[in-house]
Amino acid sequence: MGGATSLALPRAGGPHAVGCADVMVGRTRQGLFFRLFYPCRPREGAERPLWIPRYEYCGGLADFTNRSRRWCAPLLSAAFGTCRVPVSWNGPFKPGSARYPLIIFSHGLGAFRDHSASATYFCPAEAGEAAATAEEWIPYQRVPPGQKEFHFRNKQVHQRADECVRGLQLFEDISRGKSIPNILHGDFDLSVLQDSIDLTKVAVMGHSFGGATAVLATVKEPRFRCAVALDAWMFPLEHALYPEVSKPVLFINTEKFQTPESVARMKRLSSRNSQTKIITILGSVHQSPTDFTFLTGKFINRIFSTRGALNPYKGLDITSRAALAFLQRHLDLNEEFNQWDELLEGIGDSVVAEAPFCRSSL
Known about the structure:
- Its EC number is 3.1.1.47.
- Keywords: Hydrolase, Lipid degradation, Lipid metabolism.
- This protein has 362 residues and is an alpha/beta fold.
- Helices cover 28% and strands 18% of the residues.
- The protein contains eight helices and eleven strands.
- The protein has helices at 55-64, 69-80, 149-175, 209-220, 260-270, 292-295, 298-304, 312-331, and strands spanning 17-25, 32-40, 88-89, 100-106, 121-124, 135-138, 197-207, 227-230, 249-254, 277-281, 351-353.
- The strands form three sheets. The protein has a six-stranded mixed sheet, with helices on both faces. The chain has a three-stranded mixed sheet with strand order 2-1-3.
- Helix 1 (55-64) packs across helix 2 and helix 3 crosses helix 4.
- It is globular and about 50 Å long.
């Protein structure tokens, strides 16, 4: 996974080529909109999807960073509008000799494809509607004046966790042979996934707000066998929830984000379950586990603080290896990811156990 630090998204380092498709199921707020990544057959000259496919998403990111849309959205569009993800767009699915495990990932606040207004979302109109109303955009929402942030975000995190559960239910329907129409009319046929997903090996993962979502989703849906939380923002979770969290969680924290209060909440879980682990990656910042850290030079980094002192490829290696070791342990994967088990105890270069210090950027 290592490599030069050019401004581009890194290629996948696993045994398969990676395919990608956008999926939208249902037009109501009970629908789903997500980007699907899957093992695919290699294709020469395969089209690569845009990282930010629509300008409207830039406005949501600008709102999330509390910066003016007037200058921030065009800056983001200019900086990242042509960036492409190094995967095969609607590439042909590659069946395996055994069924694949399923990971459902929930992103942080302000990103794309969630109904809860914790991200930017759009829904195409019904056939025959006027062109002026062909799309309904649901933008990322800041906390309204006069509302307490906890109550506003707590409602959103529950909505987001419910979406994760509905995502799992969708893949169950596909596995049962139910026809699932994709509103976006892409070239990827979801029915090819039938008989290819091992629904006994399912985990949920997320970053920041999505990390809290992942913890909550394990309570709402016991079929999630474990969770991986990347620099989780624990604030939106109610205190009454913690005794209900019984599944193991891997918290992979960065050095410059967590507060003592947030870490104390993680430790409430690790004190009750010896399989719940907390590690901190030194030299990392809150955006280090995200795509942003690979795409920003010095100018953008000064504005958005997307890079820490640690080489982003090294940070990716640590994060990926720790997550894979944890997933092998709790999904009973027949792989060799246990070679990185020491990372789960905070043993290794640029990683420490627990959260020995908090240098929050909040």
